[in-house]
Amino acid sequence: MSAKDDIELMQHADGELELEHVEGEAKTKVESLRGITELVKGHLEMSADAIPDRRFDAMWREVARSIDVEKPVGVLSRIRSWFERHRGHVFTGMASAGAVAAIAIVLRSDGPDVTAPTSAIDVQPAALRPAPVIEDLETPGGNSTVLNIEDDDGHTTVIVVTPADTVEGI
Amino acid sequence: MKRLALLAVLAATPAFADKTDAPKPAQQPTAPAVTCEVFEIWATHGKGVVDASINKQLAKRLGASLKQNDFKQLSTTSASLTPKTAQSIKLSKGSASITLVETVNKSQLRLDVAFNAAKGNSKQVVTVAAGDYVIVSVNQSGDAKAEAHVLAVGSCK
Predict the structure, then answer these.
(1) pTM of the model
(2) How far from chain centre, in Å, is Cα B46?
(3) Of the candidates A96, A142, A156, which has its C-beta nearest B120's C-beta?
(4) Which chain A residues have a beta carbon less than 8 Å from that of B128?
(5) How far is B55 from chain A (nearest CA, A)?
(6) For residue A65, what is the enclosing H or E element?
(7) Is A134 on the interface with B (CB under 8 A)?
(8) What's phi and psi for A18, nearest 5 deg?
(9) CB–CB of B135 and A158 under 8 A?
(10) Which distant-in-sequence residues (6+ apart) come within 8 Å of A3 by Cβ?
(11) A152 touches chain B (CB under 8 A)
(12) CA geometry: angle A17, A22, A25, nearest 5 deg
């Protein structure tokens, strides 16, 4: 059989060409070709099944990226897409850092206790404050006058000292 | 992100370094400290000018209690008082010292105030509520228009 006839037989085996009177050696060739075709198809299908889904996902991402390359990409979009790609790493890192920091705080609590300074005295509202009391007053060489002024702001004790030889009002 | 975790580990490292068998240092007893504002003021008879640096509350009380009406701030100090310890107050004229004798009912102070004014002096023990003022005004002469050297202690907290 000529080479042209082999091509026609292959087309016939693929269902692309109708031939009549295929018999004998030609029929054997056609059946062999169909067998080889089935073998190749089966092998390719098994190879495709062997590829993990995540590789397909990665391939699809590449395809999508190549399609989107024409779109303008802003800084925020880039940050968002970076975070989407690396969020697993980010969360893992944050969780690790938090755990280590917690351990550090617990361990450091063994150090000397630090007491926050507390106020030694309470400032009460003006209306609740008692009037000042002068218990002792010395003004050597002078005279003293004591005033107690009360207003909305509280009490004020005023001690006015004047020289002893002074007569007020003169 | 591994770097972040590594940084946290490094930050925690001193915690391990500090952890020794040495006994804890004894905690220092913290004496209760009271902070009072001290104002040194020169009072004269004039047009009623009050330094802007003098707080309004004190200016109002000075105006209500003294014959003088011009008040110039010479110095101001925030004095940290510990019980039974005389605290010297640096003044531009004369000198002063304040001793916190004790606190009463956790809201009052018994203060021993010694004021050596430019001319004349005064020493008093007064119990005053936190937030209130004690003002000592020493007239510098017997003149009716005498100037006064004033020490105001208050706003303790």
Answers:
(1) 0.55
(2) 28
(3) A142
(4) 132, 155, 157
(5) 13
(6) helix A53-68
(7) yes
(8) -90, 125
(9) yes
(10) none
(11) no
(12) 120
Q: Which residue has the tokens 């309004």?
A: B56
- Residue A147 β-bridge partners: A158
Q: Per-residue pLDDT tens for B63-110?
A: 988 999 999 999 999 999 999 999 999 999 999 999 999 999 989 999
Distances from the Cα of A155 to the Cα of A133, B54, B71, angstroms: 11, 18, 20
Q: Show residues of chain B in contact with A117, CB under 8 Å.
A: 30, 33
The model's pLDDT over B10-21, given as tens digits with 9 standing for 90+, comes to: 554 554 444 445
B144 touches A at CB < 8 Å:
yes
Q: Which residue of B has its CA nearest to A122?
A: B107
Ramachandran region of residue A169, left (φ > 0), alpha (ψ -120 to 50) or beta? Answer: left
User: Among all chains, which residue has been given the structure tokens 């617990």?
Assistant: A106
* For chain B, domain boundaries: 32-154
Main-chain dihedrals φ then ψ at residue A145, nearest 5 degrees: -125, 135
* pLDDT higher than threshold 70 for residue B9: no
Contact A161 B5 (CB under 8 A): no
